[in-house]
Amino acid sequence: MSLPRTGAMKPKPRPPFYRDLSFQVLAGMALGIATGYFFPKFGINLQPVGDAFIRIIQMLIGPIIFCTVCSGIAGVKDFGKVGRVAIKALFYFEVVTSLALVLGLVTINVLKPGVGMNVDMHSVHSAAVDAYVAKAHHAVTTSDFLLNVIPHTAISAFAGGDVLQVLFFSVLFAFGLAAIGERAQPALDFIDSVSGALFWVIGLTMKIAPLAAFGAIAFTVSKFGFGTLLSLGKLVLEFYLTCALFFLLILWPIAKVNGFSLLRLMRYIGAELLLVIGTSSSETVFPQLIDKLERLGCEKSVVGLVLPTAYTFNHDGTCLYFAAAAVFLAQATNTPMNWHDQLVLLAVLLLTSKGAAGVSGAAIAVLAATLAASNTIPVESIALILGVHKAMSSAFVFTNIVGNSVATIVVANWEKALDRVALRHELKTGFNPAETAHSLEQPGSTSAGH
């Protein structure tokens, strides 16, 4: 039995600001920008620093999803609730990502950052995108996508790092644990112990997050410099404005209707948002989001189902990017696209966007597949935006993280699985790194809901 989230323990004093993860990550990013600009030859060699951190987190995501889902579902023992949560979550994802695509198309058509570039495709060096072009023409059908949700073996789901496959196996295994009743308790106790160990490793790994942000930013600035960013600055500014409009016109009203402050939520997950700006990978903050969303009062079973699914199906920022990038390339290459063509593009994006992974590099591959499927915009034109993809990916991954956090809280609210006292308290006081949701449990106790 868990202790109450608020009032049961005397709050620990906050550490000094220089020990706060948000400050450390921001400092690492600032140092990385300076290093990449003034010492580009050194900065270009720092890519492994950021990649190593991402790999460590990726290594832990599968087991964390498994432990969270099993503990949550098997503890609740309510198969009907699992189905309700899944349906509500998928409905929310489809509506919000559709709104994101529409907003992205409207904004890029109003601002027209690519008009007047008059790019001749014969002069574009497309060697850098040859691999994406080759893959783009191998379209994945709906049946292939659905079949791929089922892993060949239980081990291959974890070995391949496919979030959807891990979630599929975890849900089935959790149902099995719930079905056998009390006999599952030793397994649940073991899973809770493993979960505690995994989050300890995550806590240790996060100590090198500022170093990872430093390495990733230094490499980006060294490789692409500021010249590339300025040459396509209109596109970058348009996209940043589109993301801001998405927060203002879509996420803010959703948060308001569901009774919480979007700005306070963003402050609460501020360290994670800074980290994804530096690494351009949403996977780097997945474990921390699980912990923080539970601390915000979302029931563990809801977090365990909604957040992993959101990482596959709820790519708000990525949808904004796909819409903006596709129409920009049409404008830049003088490819005619009327509203009928753009509605077809929107329909294609609704399908292909579901295949975008948490790591930003996958977005280029999915964009290439989208252009190939629409059969209107030259796939090779992607070479035009490779230089600014990193700057744009930081923005769309940032948007994805906020969108997924909002989605989890909203679905928990719809399911009446949200502790509003905890939500108000945490958002008002802000996250205290001296305490975590896991540390609020008594030693040896099982998770909430058992």
UniProtKB/TrEMBL annotation:
<feature type="transmembrane region" description="Helical">
    <location>
        <begin position="21"/>
        <end position="40"/>
    </location>
</feature>
<dbReference type="GO" id="GO:0015138">
    <property type="term" value="F:fumarate transmembrane transporter activity"/>
</dbReference>
<dbReference type="GO" id="GO:0015366">
    <property type="term" value="F:malate:proton symporter activity"/>
</dbReference>
<keyword id="KW-1003">Cell membrane</keyword>
<dbReference type="Pfam" id="PF00375">
    <property type="entry name" value="SDF"/>
</dbReference>
<protein>
    <submittedName>
        <fullName>Sodium:dicarboxylate symporter</fullName>
    </submittedName>
</protein>
<keyword id="KW-0812">Transmembrane</keyword>
<dbReference type="GO" id="GO:0015141">
    <property type="term" value="F:succinate transmembrane transporter activity"/>
</dbReference>
<keyword id="KW-0813">Transport</keyword>
<keyword id="KW-1133">Transmembrane helix</keyword>
<feature type="transmembrane region" description="Helical">
    <location>
        <begin position="163"/>
        <end position="181"/>
    </location>
</feature>
<feature type="transmembrane region" description="Helical">
    <location>
        <begin position="193"/>
        <end position="219"/>
    </location>
</feature>
<feature type="transmembrane region" description="Helical">
    <location>
        <begin position="343"/>
        <end position="371"/>
    </location>
</feature>
<feature type="transmembrane region" description="Helical">
    <location>
        <begin position="52"/>
        <end position="77"/>
    </location>
</feature>
<dbReference type="InterPro" id="IPR001991">
    <property type="entry name" value="Na-dicarboxylate_symporter"/>
</dbReference>
<dbReference type="InterPro" id="IPR018107">
    <property type="entry name" value="Na-dicarboxylate_symporter_CS"/>
</dbReference>
<keyword id="KW-0472">Membrane</keyword>
<dbReference type="InterPro" id="IPR036458">
    <property type="entry name" value="Na:dicarbo_symporter_sf"/>
</dbReference>
<feature type="transmembrane region" description="Helical">
    <location>
        <begin position="89"/>
        <end position="111"/>
    </location>
</feature>
<feature type="transmembrane region" description="Helical">
    <location>
        <begin position="391"/>
        <end position="414"/>
    </location>
</feature>
<dbReference type="GO" id="GO:0070778">
    <property type="term" value="P:L-aspartate transmembrane transport"/>
</dbReference>
<keyword id="KW-0769">Symport</keyword>
<feature type="transmembrane region" description="Helical">
    <location>
        <begin position="239"/>
        <end position="257"/>
    </location>
</feature>
<comment type="function">
    <text>Responsible for the transport of dicarboxylates such as succinate, fumarate, and malate from the periplasm across the membrane.</text>
</comment>
<dbReference type="GO" id="GO:0005886">
    <property type="term" value="C:plasma membrane"/>
</dbReference>
